[in-house]
Records
---
Amino acid sequence: MADFPPSELGDYALIEVLHETEDTLTFVAKQRTIDRTVALVLLKPHRCADPAAVATFQEDVKAKARVTHPRIAAVFESSEQDGHVFYTREMVAGQDIVSLRAQGNRYEMTMVWDLLKAVCDSFLYYEKNQLGYRAFQAEGLVLIHEEPYLANLATSDLTEASAFGDSLVAIRESFWRLFRAEDTHLPDVRQFFARMDPNHKHVFKDWQELLRACNVAAQVTSTETPEVQTGPALKAASGLAQVETKEMRELSLAATQAKSRLLGVLIMLLLALAVGIGWWWLHSRQPLTPAANPMVNIPGGGFVFGKGETRELDDFVLSQYEITIAQYAKFLAELKGTSVYNHVNQPKQKKGHQPKDWSNFYAAALARGIYKGQAIDINCPIVGVDWWDAYAYARWRGGRLPTEEEWERAARGIKGFDFPWGADPDPIKSNTGGDYDPNPGAGGEDDGFSAWGSVDQLGDDISPEGLIGMGGNVSEWTATLEADPNEPGAVTAVVKGASFMTKEIVDLTHRSMHSLSKASMSRGFRIAADAVR
């Protein structure tokens, strides 16, 4: 064999080394007769001496030559000159994402999702055309004017199609670093990349599933990181608690003033009533002080998730109780028609965040009265809200909805209890539906509540971290979104926890999926936030 590496091979002048592997050298080369710049891939001498290696190389080139995808580098020809075995392919003149990352480049979410869709599309092309392929490599994804082009990974070995798992790991590592720092904190983004972990319970199984999830993620995220424009900013967990205390004082004062006016009128009308009746009214109908709802710190680290999986989380904070009617009323009062807290994908036909029949519902709660046959007060959890409402409230507070993982960590502790208090179900400790009866005055024989209960009256339903009501009362929205298996293109949210209507025994691993626009009188939410380090 002539000197290696050569300076020319037939019609090709070799200009510079572009890339090197154990078996090959890739050059920038010029095809002189047509003045075309190409990439020339040359088999190294020690491999040329092995007939089996040469045969494999040439079979792989044949497989690559079958690829006619607009975003995958095309093969031009395969040849042998003076004992050198090589092929030429399209020269893609751009920067690969490894180089771009090293330069500190970060991209808006829309572009990152588009890049990932292009990767999925290329590998689905291989599978559709029954081509084997090697695992994704970040160096093989090149951007030209922000348009993606990919290395030709086709191979003659069809068993290489099992490279999906290795590709998933490589994509997780490389794509995560393409996001802007503020976007990596979004629950939708974190949940998506968590499913690329081979140890994840719901790890992506194939390219089609990954592409579908990518489309969903692109729908529910924005190219702009949400900003809380006028709401209380989250500076610390204690900051949320301070804001909450101020809100509660204001609401308590307003409720007291309203009740005082009503009391004066009623006293004038009922002067003739017996002193005993007056005493009962004054004491049993006093305005209820809204319950404080502090943010509880949940330490990060390892914990048991699902049916025995080990997961890791950073520190975060979560509201001790479900968000109450009093808290949500404050939110509605301050909205004043603004939409700044809406999710970017909230349906245009949805106007505002006031639950159905709000005026009657709230009036009954203020009066500690009856709503649809059930006792209610302002310390009961807000219900009848859809996912968009819960999202907007959390954003107004400067927080967010908890992910499914965070919800379980807070409810189950690090050991992964089946129920907040331990391993065994106890219908007395949590407000669940074994004793539910929709008829007025009926039900509640086991836990004391037929329907929703005041959040601060559920003290036996307490998690290892001190959170109340995670075993029952109302089920709760989370930030975790997944594709709807029954409706292509639709998105559903994971809902956690039992409610006062749940008649069967369900542990804390139970999850259900619901449309983002579906409200229920047995479903509410809590809010979370990243812990301040």
---
Amino acid sequence: MIPDVILSGAMIYPIVTAPIARGAVAIGGDRILAVGPAYDIETLAGPSTRIVRLPPEYAVIPAFHDSHQHLLSYVRSRTRVALWDTTRIGAVLERLRAEAARRPPGEWIVAVGHDQGRLAERRHPTLAELDAAVPGHPLLIYRACNHVALANSAALARAGIAAATPDPPGGRIERYEDGSPTGVLLESAMALAARAVEAPAIDWRAGVRDAAREYHKRGIVAIGEAALGHVAGLRDLEIVNETIRGGGAGLRMYVLAYGAVAEAMLQAAEAGETQGAWRDDAWLRFGAIKYFADGTLGGGTAWLSEEYGDEPGNRGFPLVSAEELDARVLRAHRAGFQAAIHAIGDAAVAMALDSYERALAAHPRLNHRHRIEHVEVVHAGLPERFARLGVVAAIQSCFTYWEEGDVTRLGPGLAPWGHAWGALQRAGVVLANGSDNPVLPDFAPLQGIAAAVTRTAHNGRVIAAHQAIGVMDALRSYTWGSAYAAFAEHEQGALAPGMYADITVLDGDLLGAEPERLTSVSVVMTVAGGTIVYEQ
């Protein structure tokens, strides 16, 4: 087959074999035809082949694969008030006042991207501050992690949340001494307010198309949709079938089903129904069932084996009992699915591993590739348990850069085990890297690679330097590792003949750059299935 395109002259990183200086990649249709030295590959060109000659200091890598993000939540978040760049409570309140001035009285205001860990005051705005800033509108602010929300008095009243309102299972309404709500809603308590929000309809086709461009600009072609069903229930399934299937968005999606979508997927599998909405194609694949074991470090709801260093008496809490998690995991495991458990605190990680160990003892299964999402805190012995059980660690190394205010909440016993990518790597655990977008100000994989290598946060603080991993290990985690976590490493995550032509071109050689300069490297081209979808 004559190549359609040859990318030639740069440093080639196949991932599964050694780098090739002044190499080339030949593309035909949606596949890679050949990889090797440029002088060999260019002989394959025909009259119609486009040869893209690249400087030798450029790098050609497999397109990034974000193993854990939330595309539909990202689309929705782009319709809300953004607080990502605020660094003081005064700036938060001023932005909310400006938004209120543009809206009719009584209309809901929903904001995203708040993180008290990045504010100078290191606290949430108080109920009184929110009421004074936005007196004429119900207001709901989602913390960046989407596990904590702040409501003003008008929102609490609209939602019917009062002193007599009980905490829901798996959640908590924070209260003053008299029992009245402070406006801070943790975990499932957020739903009490969210269900009262009146929001405009979203154009999902346009939203996904526009969002895909942002992924392509960052060199991302493949994604794990980490909780399909979380945004609009079963409507989420319809949305991805309409927008992702067939390749119209230029994104490959591996689904981690949640809630109503997970239940429908389990019932379909148990009934032997694998067609229709569940049919895999080259762009949309189904395979994992998502569960939650705990909350987040920033929200103080991640379940730890020792108390938070800045909050004596609080260790967080599990969102489900061990017995309930065991039953859910066993059901997914017996149905042949991969299970994916959100577990951030080390106590939650241990509980998740316990559930996997019990499921595998009851029904042994090779190549299950069960996953734990986030794994922000472990303790001695847990990395080795991951490796022994064959559990994948779906990490987000970009958290080290953006969420310094979270991981530094750990006490002295657990602080050395925060974001322990190095310990997991040394134990032989497969790392599948991602961003958890839209929980951060940005989701660029290159930022995540830099953070994994340098362990440096946005404010210059170095976090547990002994847990660093190498550049190639970090790159592998964002490509082959994420493909492995999605059972796709035979077609994605590497540059080799027969693999999908999902390719990213960088304007710098990652191995040749000083670790501190990795963030200065930029994406200049992204190819999805042989089609150039982004070019600088």
---
Amino acid sequence: MSVGKAKLFVRESSGLTKQVSLIDAMMLNIANMGAGLAIFTGIAPYIVAGANLWLASILTFIFTLPLVFMYTFFLLDIPRTGGDYVWLSRRLNGTIGSIMGIALAFNMPPFFALAAFFSVAAIYYVLLTIGTLNHQASLIGLTNTIFVNPYGTLTLSQDLIIYGLSALAFAIIILINVFRPKWGYTITTALGTFAIIGTFVAMAVIAFNVPDFHRAILPFLQDFNLTSVASQKYTGPLFSLPATLYMIPYFASYAYIWLYAGPAVGAEIRTRNGLKYNLITGSILTLILITIPFYLLEVAGGYAFNFNLFPTYTYNFWTVAIALAHNYVLQWFIGLSLIAWEYFVMAFGVIVFARYVFAFAFDRLFPERFANLNKWGSPANAHYLDFIVTLVFLAVPIISPEGVQALYSYTPLAIAYLILVSIAALKHGLGTKKTRFIIVSVISLVFMLFMGYEAFTNPYFGVITSTGQPFWPGIAYIASLIGLGAIIYVIARIINLRKGIDISLVYKEIPPE
């Protein structure tokens, strides 16, 4: 690197080592897409009459496949820490890339805070289901005192207990990544492996009970007072293509469009095959982990039966699998697998957020200290920032129920970001004359524009109300993150100009590995 270039970046090498395997990177992507939570209470309660959930999952995968290829092609061309932030700032515009990169990165802690806070919901349903089915008052008691339903009306002490448990879990993951960064990947992969195996075991349990499903599930329905709900007459269509297509944005926003994890650690992936296959393998496995559970429930229960019960939240893939296990040890194995999915998501988040902050600091957008590595090779200061920001957002569910709704507006912001990444990919494809890049970027752009329309017209995404009125807390949340990006960029530009460094020149160069 020339002397001129060396002055642009904090140093001539990132210092991060190539320690990430294909499996590690794939697991980051699977956690990013959160299949196990999608089949919990993420999508099914929002089903509309006639919608076929397993088919909607397949269609969503097909529609988002160009996005997967676009990210893969970008990753192969520019494998750098910070992934899509680097692509956007170098191939579209430095200022826009900086502002939106910061907005996206700080869009992550609210998601991680929600995952941490509502991880208690997974523990609650596991304890409640196993306790009720086995008539264990001690487990049911825990759901009334400590691991209460976070979706219910909580006392301040219950809120504080959830906050404390969530913060403790997050702190442990942060400390592991600070003092043993390689263990951060190992733990993420281990949690993911356990969660995925448990999901397949749960599938096998339901598949085994298909011939006698309605008799086998009856005790569960009786114990949870759901027999009258299950027997309600359903008069809607058993299948509607428009209704199925209507569910595509739900599947896309909850799972299939989240592809930034593997690329964010691109400079640390050891092999070319790791770069090439981590996104597609993660996406295919996510397709399997979402589609088969919904297919099995439809084959076993029938459309009307499931349609009546999905909105209760109590009836979902995981609770059904626990109920049908008929073995105490197996029930706990399946239940712990669900809980593992929650911590799997948190574990990936700690790794990925720190890489974005590291990339910002390496470009002099953030203070240099955030690009420093401790003696164990960890971007410790970036992890500490993640912990502080997440703790702040973790308090939002306690302070304001409307604030919780606003945090769900992270999806519209991410969609706007992906639209820009698609434009950057198109520009890169035209500049490099790579036809495959041009094709997938155009298709991705069209799909993301459709998602953008959905994000700002569907109450599910947190920027309008069910009556069609603007949801101002959600809009304020999005505006504040973009504003934060703009403020940080302006301050960084001014500070660096005083040092004789024009950071706009940084974005004319690909950062060193």
---
Amino acid sequence: MKNVGRSIGAVLAVIIFAFICVAAILYARGVFDISFIDRNAGTKDTEENSHDTLPPLETGPAPEYENIEDMGAPETVGAGTVKFENSADLLAGGSTIDTSVYSAEKHTLALVNPALTLPNVYSYRQMWDEVNVKKEGDNGGYIGATEFVLRDRTVITLYAGYIIYDCGGTMYLLDNVGNPLVTFNDGDIKPAYHYNAYGEPLFLYNGRYCHYDDANKLMSEEDVTYVHEVDSIGVYFEHAPEYGRGMGETRFRNDTNWKWSFINSNNPDIYKYYGLYNFSESLAAAMELRIREVTREGVELEVTDDNGFPVIDENGDVKTGTATVVTYEKNYQLNFLDTAGKTKLSGDKTFIDGDGNIVFSTWQKPLFTHGKEAMGYLYFENGLCRVREITTDLTSPEKKIYSDTDYIIKNDGSRFPLPEGYTVVSYSCGMILFEKDGKYGFMNYNGEWVVQPVYSYAEPYFEGLAVIGLENGKKAMIDTAGNTVIPFAYQYISNASSGVIALYDSETGWQIVHKMTKLASAPAAE
């Protein structure tokens, strides 16, 4: 019995010792605390214990907001209750209409009293509007198409600070304070989404590039101040005059081989780019030709004799066989050059797919070059640029496209991490507009959601301001911090256009608002 007692005691001692060891380990890992022990007592701020030595948090895109459906409907107000400052008073006091990115500390919005009385009618007539449509290609990938959609033409349309007024008959071109400049017939004058060398916005006037000549009060045709093939920045949408204008460099095109260079030379070999665009943040987009040697094994071919005629078998059919075929495939790709003219960033990659096929991946020109769908391509902004990547199996007879993807790259060529399941609509002012399941939101260039993806309508940022909309049709305008600048009060809000914004609601009719610099506060009296 004594031996049994000693055995039981030894077992209990082992169990108690094991329990104490486990408890010590759990306490050390912070699983539980003991109330009378100060966990931090005697801890030194050594390099091992300092929080500064902990690995930083990953700075990818924030996850979707929790309780995203429980935000509640944003507050809407009557348009008649929205108050603005008076533009004429601010202009008289030294304020200016400003085109720079909106800042609450720097800017204010002020109401214009135009020379012509604007109506309460949203539209007098309809128009055929060109809409970009993305369609699937026959061999994979996508093709861009344009469709015409009949819609109401707004009484007021803005372009580069000009106000185009459709009164149902004669069309008026107004300046940015609402003074009439010229009259024209419907369709005679259209925005060209370009500027000439002097920074003057261009119009298409009966198919010719023109600008408004303020001195002579008429539309003046361009001569040498704008040559479309040379001066175009490659994408066409409302933008500031300095957008895409580069760093003072000049692009040259050889009229013999139609290639481009930053060097003007009589030597045609200097011109090697099939498309060349101005610098942005010390990088310039360029279209280059890449010729790849592609080997196809087991290709079925007709057997021919020494004279090149098909060989006929005993059944009267053309005899065939298999062979290894080597071809040279041309592929145009978009790269980015540094200021020394060397390729700095390239999406050119070669890899083997799961079936052993050789697959090539390159960056290509955007699917659309016109409209908001083109915003963010070709030019870096806040260290980011939008690219289109196409992955192709050049060994297949139909050159099958595996993927045709739109994403954002950083200025070191790496991918900007995008939230899963979202489509990039545009990138401007450092803000990425995303869409998912018909809902829109904005993420900034740091990868932070600034505007939750819950809105039924959204336009890209122009001059630091973006229009968002609710399912009930009410629109608001926000800044790049997500703050409301114009509340949900209007049926229509235009994008900012060289400091000019147009508003419409049936309660107020049409209104013109200026984005203006704030007047300096008077010094306090001593």
